[in-house]
Design a protein that fits this description.
With 408 residues, the protein is of the alpha/beta class. It contains 16 helices and 15 strands. Helix content is 39%, strand content 20%.
């Protein structure tokens, strides 16, 4: 089942934010994330806050979720405008779960609600995730006409036996077909998401998946190492010895295979697990996360962050809908981040980017440690001389460990 939420402090029922959240708001970008908590089936490796019809029962439905999501968009608009500062939304991302299960009309309605309540910037990036088996040309035509600019398709692998271990339902070629449909619908930006390190996957299997994704002509590829999350069916199989735990050395080798293939195809890394054709093809919504921007997360279990204030919604769709139906905020808890915590998070997040981290963010001890990381070949020597900590290709494999050492 999905992982638990943090503890934090109680969140106000009216959704109000402390003054800290509003300071400097006009200078920060605003993003909206909408979480769709529905899937037809649960994949064995997944611990996201999603529910199949059997898990959900009769306590909630896509209809009750939609009513609640629209109500939360209204709550976001009122809360963010409290001091009179108006910002248009720079990016919207609908994720899940399986947003494509909602259909094109419902996705269009959600985007229209954000535009009506808050307002979209003229050049707003609008993305939806899509599963291959629930994506078709009609859906893509509908959302493109509604203003969506980007689609992110879960491919995972081209190898049938790898998809079987992951318990993915789509056929190997369906994701590639969906990418072609997206191009025909007029999407300039199409991403394919891959997973590497699945038990039973070979180097050649992964190379074939990379070649297929590149051959589809997409301008963005994400490649994530498989993580066996506690509580998942895959974790239970690993514990019983039915599947081997992914090997760290194999995962590192697969990452380098991905970087070689994608770089040779003209896609450059801009975040440790993401490669894009050019700046326009980058996922600017995710960049807002990594750069500490403001975002409001709509939906069950969704997290939000505004000006150093972070909160998270009730996890179950029924509890989420009940709160909003009663005129209350769906937030379950929140935390107000102090300066030290915000600095630490900035180090961990920005170090994952190709632009790296301003050396001035580091303490004296952190800068001394960075010099050692440069000597070890994990931080780029020229970038450090110019005042930035930027991971090398070897450093990308160890980015979180480097960040931990730089924090102090």
């Amino acid at each position: 089942m999905p992982s638990t939420l943090p503890d934090g402090e109680p969140a106000p029922e009216d959704g109000s934010l402390p003054e800290q959240a509003y300071r400097g708001m006009a200078e920060r970008s605003l993003s909206i994330y909408i979480h769709v908590p529905f899937c037809t089936t649960r994949c064995g490796y997944c611990d996201f806050n999603t529910y199949t019809p059997g898990e959900l029962g009769s306590s909630a439905s896509p209809e009750s979720w939609l009513d609640a999501a629209l109500a939360e968009i209204g709550l976001a608009a009122r809360t963010l405008a409290r001091t009179g500062v108006h910002r248009e939304v720079s990016t919207v991302f609908i994720g899940g779960g399986t947003p494509s299960l909602l259909g094109g009309e419902t996705l269009a309605r959600l985007l229209g609600a954000v535009d009506d309540a808050i307002g979209l910037a003229p050049d707003a990036e609008v993305t939806t995730e899509a599963n291959p088996e629930s994506t078709d040309p009609r859906l893509l035509d509908t959302i493109r006409a509604a203003g969506f600019t980007r689609v992110s398709i879960g491919m995972q692998s081209i190898a049938p036996h790898v998809l079987a271990v992951l318990e993915r339902r789509h056929t190997p070629g369906r994701a590639l077909q969906a990418a072609q449909w997206a191009r025909r619908a007029g999407f300039a930006h199409v991403s394919l998401d891959l997973i590497y390190g699945t038990p039973g996957e070979s180097d050649d299997d992964f190379r074939a998946s990379l070649d297929a994704a590149i051959g589809a002509g997409v301008d963005h590829v994400s490649a994530y190492s498989l993580i066996v999350e506690p509580g998942t069916r895959m974790a239970r199989k690993v514990a019983k010895g039915e599947l081997p735990m992914p090997d760290d050395d194999v995962l590192a080798d697969r990452y380098l295979i991905a970087d070689d293939a994608l770089s040779a195809a003209g896609l450059s890394w801009y975040e440790v697990s993401n490669w894009a054709r050019d700046d326009a093809a980058r996922c600017h919504h995710n960049l807002a996360y990594w750069r500490g921007g403001d975002w409001w997360g709509v939906g069950p279990g969704a997290h939000s962050h505004v000006g150093g204030v972070r909160w998270w919604n009730r996890k179950h769709p029924a509890a989420y809908a009940a709160a909003l139906g009663a005129g209350r905020s769906p937030a379950q808890g929140r935390e107000v981040l102090d300066a030290a915590t915000r600095r630490e998070e900035r180090i961990f997040l920005e170090l994952r980017l190709d632009t790296g981290l301003d050396a001035a963010v580091l303490s004296d001890r952190g800068r001394a440690q960075a010099v050692r990381e440069v000597a070890d070949g994990l931080l780029d020597e020229r970038a450090w001389a110019a005042g930035r900590a930027v991971v090398t290709r070897s450093g990308r494999l160890l980015a979180d460990g480097i960040a931990l050492r730089l924090v102090d």
